[in-house]
Specification:
Blueprint: H1 3-16, E1 18-19, H2 22-42, H3 47-62, H4 66-83, H5 90-102, H6 113-118, E2 125-126, H7 128-148, H8 151-154, H9 157-162, H10 172-190, H11 197-215, H12 219-232, E3 243-247, H13 252-264, E4 270-274, H14 278-284, H15 288-293, E5 296-299, E6 302-305, H16 307-314, H17 332-350
Parallel strand pairs: 3-4
Antiparallel strand pairs: 1-2, 3-5, 5-6
Helix pairs in contact: 2-3, 2-12, 3-4, 4-5, 5-7, 5-12, 7-10, 10-11, 11-12
Length: 354
């Protein structure tokens, strides 16, 4: 009996939780582009269906009646499967489920024509349908890995037949089978673990970026890659101003880089504060000398500086969240730290402060 209130409370929190709309807007744009690419791949021979599909895809991408466009695309996808089962594929199944959930998500509340037209402040969106999209991606990884757990795949027969590699490279197939299977299991779980999530995103970036190269860049694989990467943005920490960045505001060189980072912070998760403000130093738990020596980032109870701080910032930027964790791997982290220290020592010579 004591567990029921807890379960009810958790369910209520899930159904009422709201999150910032920007990441959802980026997700919608990525799905819309994948839809347009899918339409260019297989639909040109059906003029009327192609026109409706492409118009709805453009509307979804731009955020013009996004829910209606997602519903039209979902219905078309199911209808085309009923008429011609050759239209169906694993990536189409995943895309159809995502489109179905987009009929519920208020995905054009940000980064959309509607948002620009109404000129209203961004509002948070209900999170539970977005959470279902995240769950669907995890399930896709899990069941794909389970389906591949068979002798034909593990011995490399499937990879050998599918790879777009010269025959002399066919010996690679068995060696790639088990790592691919392990990677899919890991990504499906690690996306939900904050400490492992950056590694999962990096692994997924490499996996889905490499598969079209190994198997040939046909549109179906490219569509699925774009679909998956679009869902990845929903796992990025998008809490507004949740990360404090402290920088030397007496340095013109630093000012230029901070301006670029501000422009790229589309999710607005960083709060950039100069080291000349004592209250900022207290909040970050650093001294003025430490902040002036290297940029500092405060995330929760932890503060990192220098090249590691740049990596942490990139992990929350839409242009860097997929690959930024590679900067933590040796020798990249060693070379990056050395380059950062050298630039920090010479920065006042490169651009005098204003």
């Amino acid at each position: 009996m004591n567990q029921r209130p807890g379960l009810a409370s958790s369910a209520t929190r899930l159904l009422t939780a709201r999150r910032p709309a920007r990441a959802v807007g980026l997700f919608r744009i990525g799905i819309g582009l994948a839809v347009l690419l899918r339409g260019l791949e297989t639909l040109p021979e059906i003029a009327a269906v192609t026109a409706v599909w492409m118009l709805a895809g453009a509307g979804l991408t731009l955020g013009v009646g996004a829910r209606l466009c997602a519903g039209v695309l979902c219905a078309l996808s199911i209808g085309l499967h009923v008429v011609d089962q050759n239209f169906w594929a694993h990536h189409v199944y995943f895309m159809t489920l995502v489109l179905l959930l987009l009929t519920i998500i208020d995905s054009d509340a940000s980064l959309s024509v509607r948002w620009l037209r109404d000129r209203r402040p961004e509002r948070d969106v209900l999170w539970w349908p977005v959470w279902l999209v995240q769950v669907q991606l995890s399930l896709a990884y899990f069941f794909t890995a389970v389906a591949k757990f068979n002798p034909a795949f593990l011995e490399g027969a499937v990879r050998r037949g599918a790879m777009a590699l010269p025959p002399e490279w066919a010996w690679l197939a068995p060696w790639l089978a088990l790592p691919v299977l392990a990677a899919e299991f890991f990504i499906g779980v690690a996306l939900w673990v904050p400490a492992l999530r950056p590694w999962a995103l990096l692994l997924g970036f490499g996996l889905h970026g490499l598969v079209p190269v190994l198997m040939g860049p046909y549109a179906g694989l490219l569509v699925f890659t774009l679909l998956v990467w679009s869902v990845y943005i929903l796992f990025v920490d998008d809490r507004p101003q949740s990360r404090l960045v402290v920088w030397d505001d007496t340095c013109g060189f630093c000012r230029g880089w901070v301006q670029w980072l501000r422009r790229l912070d589309w999710l607005r998760v960083h709060r950039f504060e100069g080291s000349s403000r004592p209250e900022t130093l207290v909040e970050a738990g650093v001294t003025a000398e430490e902040a002036n020596e290297e940029i500092k980032v405060r995330v929760g109870a932890h503060t990192v500086g220098g090249f590691a701080a740049i990596r942490v910032i990139l992990e929350s930027l839409p242009i860097g969240f997929l690959w930024a964790r590679v900067l933590a791997l040796p020798p990249i982290n060693w070379l990056g730290a050395a380059a950062y220290r050298r630039a920090a020592q010479r920065r006042h010579c490169l651009l005098p402060p204003r």
